[in-house]
Amino acid sequence: MKLLIRNGTVVRSDGQVKSDVFTEDGIIRKIGPHLNEAADRVIDASGCYVFAGFIDTHTHLDLELTTTTTADDFESGTRAAVVGGTTTILDFATQDRGMTMQDALEKWHRKADGKSSCNYGFHLAVSEWNEARKAEIDAMIAQGVTSFKMYMVYPAMRVDDGKIYDAIRYCAERDCIVGVHCENFDLLNARIDELHAMGRFDPMAHAESRPDVVEAAGVSALMRTAELADAPAWVVHLSCEASLDEVEAARGRGVEVYVETCPQYLVLDKALYNEPDAEKFIMSPPLRLEHDRKALLTALGEGAIDFIGTDHCSFTMAQKALGHGDFAAVPNGGAGIQNRAELVYTYAVQAGYLTLEQMAALLSENAAKIFGMYPQKGVLREGSDADIAIFDPNDPHTISYRTNLHACDNSPYEGIAVLGRTRDVILNGELVVQDGTLIQPHCGRYVFRQPSGRTRK
Ligand code: URP
Ligand code: ZN
Ligand code: ZN
């Protein structure tokens, strides 16, 4: 398949230029003005931005919790992803206790292979760290898994700081990176008990049980752990100013820290926990305040945050209602896989916090480098994979779960206005989304990743 994209503005982290793009057999062959290569298909991208396909660093598809399984699996989740311009997701293959990493990886391949409409790689989320699990790391790397995740909270998954210390050091020796869900477990449980004792079971109490300092205490511990281990650390879904302060202080001491944030922490407010459908906003970390959003947006502009993932972890309202009457029993997570680019464009670029070039870096290039996919992915240049998002900046619309392709009956962004939208998507050299419609599903491939690029080393 030969494809020619004409008249668009090619946006990369190092600049933007009006240019054509020619792809053949899944690879970008030429970028330049007025190309006249013979093509099977010509796409007119006039008035649009042409980005390297977006990479979502943080999704949970077909994830079984103790009470229920996420509403989106790889079938529905990746349809929504690709329509939103995301050509690669990194999903968390999850090793439950008593399971090997190999079992978890094979299980996630069964969930994803043949069902995915965007490309996909896996981080391995580990619930145990011992000699047996350690012995599996090299086998994971040999199968293209070069990033891992640990949780400080959730009783079924949490590991202690000593395990995190050993894991990040062991993985760093192999140029692999470990992401950590940072919240202080003991403080969180103390707050939940306090709130329950006060008769507080409402959704706002979710936010009050895990305020910014509970997250910052976790981040602080990770920063000191990484310092002691002399190893890099990745803070997943950082949500607040207090945590940014901990990161900045650690970087000042020479700690190599990678930071991810999510659109919900840039756009949505804690006050939403007072709404009648507040359970759909129950996620961890919880939504924060305006000063946190401003601090995150400013940090993005200053380069202090490395990438933006969605933490898509969707549940229907019926699933959320499993915990009705007690915030601590509501399944944690929300839907966002389709809306990341349009939210970042509207609320970060158009709001004046980011340039388009920074958007390209934060939604694609940085993640490709840090997670071992660069330069095949994350950049529009000759020789790179033809994964391309054509974004129309002049297509104002309102986000709704009714028009999103994800499988759940709610969206945290319901009713939010955005200014643009992904119009067309090229995946592995094929036009898979045309005028916002998925015309070729199931074209996603497994992405075998190299060790981390460690851009802050
Ligand atoms: O509430 C959330 N974020 N659920 C997904 C699991 C996690 O903590 O990343
Ligand atoms: Zn988490
Ligand atoms: Zn998550």
Commentary on this structure:
- With 457 residues, this protein is of the alpha/beta class.
- Helix content is 31%, strand content 22%.
- It is built from 14 helices and 19 strands.
- Strands 1, 2, 3, 4, 5, 14, 17, 18 and 19 form a nine-stranded mixed beta sheet that branches. An eight-stranded parallel beta sheet has the order 6-7-8-9-10-11-12-13. A two-stranded antiparallel ribbon has the order 15-16.
- Helix 1 links the parallel strand 6 and strand 7.
- Helix 5 crosses helix 8, helix 6 packs across helix 7 and helix 8 runs parallel beside helix 9.
- The longest helix is centred in the middle third of the chain and has 18 residues.
- It is globular, with a radius of gyration of 21 Å.
- The model has no long low-confidence stretch (mean pLDDT 98).
- Bound molecules: N-(aminocarbonyl)-beta-alanine (URP) and zinc ion (2 copies).
- One zinc ion binds next to loops.
- The site of N-(aminocarbonyl)-beta-alanine (URP) has 8 residues, from loops.
Helix share bin: 25-40%
Please report the number of helical segments.
Answer: 14
- Rounded mean pLDDT score: 98
Instruction: Characterize the main sheet.
Output: 9 strands, mixed
Gyration radius, rounded: 21 Å
How many strand segments? 19
Terminal CA distance: 39 Å
Bound molecules: N-(aminocarbonyl)-beta-alanine, zinc ion
Fraction in beta strands: 15-25%
Output the structural class.
alpha/beta
What does the overall shape look like?
globular
Low-confidence stretches: none
